[in-house]
Amino acid sequence: MTMRTYLGDAVYATYDGHMLTLTTEDGVNVSNTIHLEPGVLLALDIFRKRCFEASQPMMHCPHCGGPNDHGSDCVDYSRTKRREL
Ligand SMILES: [Zn+2]
After folding, report:
1. Cβ atoms of 13 and 2 closer than 8 Å
2. Within this chain, do residues 62 and 74 fall inside the same structural domain, yes or no?
């Protein structure tokens, strides 16, 4: 089964069940082709995640590095504070 979609900006993505292929096309001619095998696709996903996290530093707790959804109730923060006293 092959899946294909238009990503925008003349870029198409095709998935053949094994690798993802990116092409730039004007609707008739293909001008660029990049084949992303599973390992490369995984590396891209990891890099994209790193970029996203780097651009949103406040989403992570500075004390435990976890999602910053607990504010000053951080267990690691309390532990650090106790050590300082
Ligand atoms: Zn925390």
Report:
1. no
2. yes
